[in-house]
Amino acid sequence: VADIRGTAAPIGSAAGSAGAAPAEGAPDGAVVIALRADMDALPMTEDTGDLPWASSRPGAAHMCGHDGHMANLLGVARLVAARRDRLPSDRVLRMLWQPAEEGPGGAAPMVAEGAMTGVAEVYGFHNWPTFPLGNAQIVAGPAMAHVTDFDVTVNGRGGHASAPHVLADPVLAASHCVVALQSIVSRCVPASDAAVVSVSTIHGGEVRNVIPSTVTFSGTIRTLSERASSIIAEKLPALVNATAAAHGCSAEVSLESLYPVLHNDPAAAEHCVRVAKATLGPDRAPSWGLPLMGGEDFGYFSAEAPGCYVFFGTAEQDRENHMLHSSHFDFNDRALPRTITFFTRLLEDRWGLAGSAASDGGGSAASAVSGSAGPLYSEEELPSFAGKGGVPPADWAPPAPSSTRTDRTEAVGSDAVAMGHA
């Protein structure tokens, strides 16, 4: 966790009333806006050929684009740090550098250790290779699913495969359990509730002519409501136990509730939509394709303060757009100018800095407020992509610092933007 605080004269809560209000516990009554970047790689080997930024470590690679997420936050930090002399001293950027998003989860421990203390609003994003480059897909309410993992052990009575009539076959019982589980969503969960039950592993037996005594299988449950979660948590063990018993076997079932539903605050989502339309284009903030049934522990942050999680598209027609967690995945660096511009303008908006280029003239946080500070960057210094068809200028680069200050944040951020990878 690291903060960047302005050095200009404070503007107070009244001047920033169109933006976020200070949260309880905020240092000196400051408006603290948090941006999160997850940092962890995946335990897999990259297969992207001879890319100069490919992982050099077998069994560890950024196949989910978290390197791009870090580069984005470093880029935003560089822009904010470069204009601290324009940023009021009661406006703070809190950077949440989070480990272990892929598991076992780094957000909850960070919250427990005080990372969200005093935060007024929190925002984050994920690159998404099936959404078009230039889009910021945003939805209010549930955006990603509650994750519950399950493990099942079916116990029978093994023996020679030529005499199944004197055995209790756990392979047959487990197979019927797998099929039966698919009836939970279709017959027990209301059609208005989205839910997924997937069996993804099954193991049993060692040789062809022996029926084993034990078979194990495991999988995942994804839901968007507490009602659906409760129904499945009740029905799955009951169905497995009954099905196993019908085949003369017994079963042991364990369920582990993991990440909660990632819920986008409606007002925070609206702020993001407004800024995305102003910076990316009026048709560049759709909600189609959402919510997603994947899991994400950003929900622990947004449970502490109003927040929104945005999905930035990276797909291009003439590019191989491999999905996240593919060994061929490569983060599309052309998304970075858009994400950096978006989050910089979002910060201006939520800090209530008058005249921000993200202003829509309709009472947004960027609307002119008597006595407030101006934006960190003019439209000329940090141009939007609205009206450009989503194509960034070929010579786009972050604006030069407004001073000769070479603080640590600025220096690191500059390197990250130049490389495109953190």
Instruction: Evaluate the radius of gyration.
Output: 25 Å
Apparent shape: elongated
Uncertain segments of ≥5 residues (pLDDT<50)?
361-371, 403-422
Please give the share of residues in helix. Answer: 25-40%
Strand order of the largest sheet: 1-3-2-4-14-5
Secondary-structure element pattern, one letter each? EHEHEHEEEEEHEEEHEEHHEHH
Largest sheet descriptor: 6 strands, mixed
Our count of helices gives 9
Task: Tell me what portion of residues adopts beta-strand conformation.
Answer: 15-25%
- The residue-averaged pLDDT reads 89
Overall structural class, as computed from helix and strand content, comes to alpha+beta
Distance between the termini: 17 Å
Strand segment count: 14
Structure overview:
This protein has 422 residues and is an alpha+beta fold. The chain is elongated and about 85 Å long. The strands form 4 sheets. It has a 6-stranded mixed β-sheet with strand order 1-3-2-4-14-5. It contains 9 helices and 14 strands. Strand 2, helix 2 and strand 3 form a beta-alpha-beta unit. Helices cover 27% and strands 22% of the residues. The longest helix has 21 residues.
Short description:
The protein is of the alpha+beta class and 422 residues long.
Can you give keywords for this protein?
14 strands, 6-stranded mixed β-sheet, disordered C terminus, 422 residues
Q: How are the elements arranged and paired?
A:
Blueprint (H helix, E strand, L loop, with lengths): L1 E4 L6 H4 L15 E8 L27 H17 L8 E8 L8 H6 L6 E14 L3 E2 L3 E4 L1 E10 L3 E2 L9 H18 L7 E10 L5 E2 L2 E10 L2 H21 L3 E8 L4 E3 L1 H15 L18 H4 L4 E9 L20 H15 L57 H12 L3
Parallel strand pairs: 2-3, 2-4, 4-14
Antiparallel strand pairs: 1-3, 5-14, 6-13, 7-11, 7-12, 8-10, 9-11
Helix pairs in contact: 2-8, 2-9, 4-5, 6-8
